[in-house]
Amino acid sequence: MIELEGVPELIDPVMVAAFEGWNDAGDAASAAVAHLDREWKGEVFAALDAEDYYDFQVNRPTVFLDGGVRKITWPTTRLSVVRVGDADGKGRQRDLVLVRGIEPSMRWRSFCNEILGFAHELGVEMLVVLGSLLGDTPHTRPVPVSGVTSDADLAGRLDLEESRYEGPTGIVGILQEACTHAGVPAVSLWAAVPHYVSQPPNPKASLALLNRLEDLLDVRIPLGELSEDARAWQLGVDQLAAEDSEVAEYVQSLEEARDTADLPEASGEAIAREFERYLRRRDPQGGPGVATEGGVADGRDPSFLRDTSSGLTRRRPKAPKEPDEPREPREPTDSGSGSPEAEDDGPEDN
After folding, report:
1. Nearest of 275, 202, 189, 289 to residue 237 by alpha carbon
2. How far apart are CA 48 and CA 40, in angstroms?
3. CATH no. for residue 207?
4. What's a Pfam family this protein contains (predicted)?
5. What sign does the dihedral 84-88-89-90 (CA atoms) show?
6. Eight-class DSSP state of 300
7. Is the pLDDT confidence value at 346 over 80?
8. What would the pLDDT profile of 298-311 be if each residue is shown by its tens digit?
9. Is 27 domain-assigned?
10. What is the largest CA-CA distance in the chain?
11. What is the pLDDT of residues 270-282, one digit of tens each?
12. What are 199-243's pLDDT values in tens digits?
């Protein structure tokens, strides 16, 4: 039995987890949870025993000086709790239990059981695991984020996909399966990171995960400087791609494939859903800081709507104009030329 001391009674708690390693392309998932921990000033209340789960020749401890005293930080998984004071913009509070660590080297079943023990003791209602993977996706388009669950009821209620994956898996897949057997609702959110620019960090993918998490949990997530970091990241990759004609050509081929595949999604219904997301995320004063799937905050012209699935920007349909009032026929005038072109069919002069 896990006994927790000093942890207050939580309000509608949800556990959000991410693990460095195989499930964390571009460090996008772990950076997203780190952002939540930093912005909401999370307080660590527990850490798993590193000796039980990690191979220190693979994940080595680090030495640092603290006031002239040498100390060691061991690779492990830590749990912190944050309270969202204005979860939905209407004053409702909610608690998040953040789990951030490294994919364990051994004893995965015991590792998952220990995480679930904390979830049970804290009364966690749902577990959301963030992950990122390498994919054939262009960096110039919105980051694809898929939501997956093994729970059919949860899939229907939250508009998620039911997991159909078969093949090698990481700790994200093992933890989600352990939740299924334990009766804990679990969801995994996966961001696709361009394989040709896989080096961390990838703030655009981290932002896309946070956007999807915001929708899933109906909370307002402070973005801090993440939007600007995402913008700078994309501009930097744009410049690198422009310097290499082969890379530029390859990116263009990915863009064409992505736009063609996603074109059916660029429907009126999809645009309406995106506009609803925009309204939910908008700053109450209409100022900057709007989170978008494209990974930037901007003051986009409201006469345009962004379809995040295809990356296309479309003009919002205008209201039909009222038909012009019929004009009274005019008497022909003698222009002196007698030609039809001499007759004035235009509007009268003021």
Report:
1. 202
2. 22
3. 3.40.50.10900
4. PAC2
5. negative
6. -
7. no
8. 333 333 333 433 33
9. yes
10. 106
11. 555 555 555 555 5
12. 999 999 999 999 999 999 989 899 999 999 999 999 999 999 999
Strands (E), the chain: 14-20, 43-47, 62-66, 69-73, 78-84, 94-102, 126-135, 145-149, 161-162, 186-194, 304-307, 312-315
Q: Does residue 268 lie in a domain region?
A: no
Give the separation between CA 189 and CA 210, rounded to whole angstroms: 10
Q: Output 219-223 pairs: Cβ under 8 A, ≥24 positions apart.
A: 219/84, 219/87, 219/88, 219/94, 219/96, 220/84, 220/86, 220/87, 220/88, 220/89, 220/281, 221/36, 221/39, 221/291, 222/39, 222/40, 223/289, 223/291, 223/297
- Residue count (the chain): 350
51 lies in a domain?
A: yes
pTM for the full predicted model = 0.74
Q: Is 284 a domain residue?
A: no
Q: Containing domain of residue 151, as a range?
A: 14-263
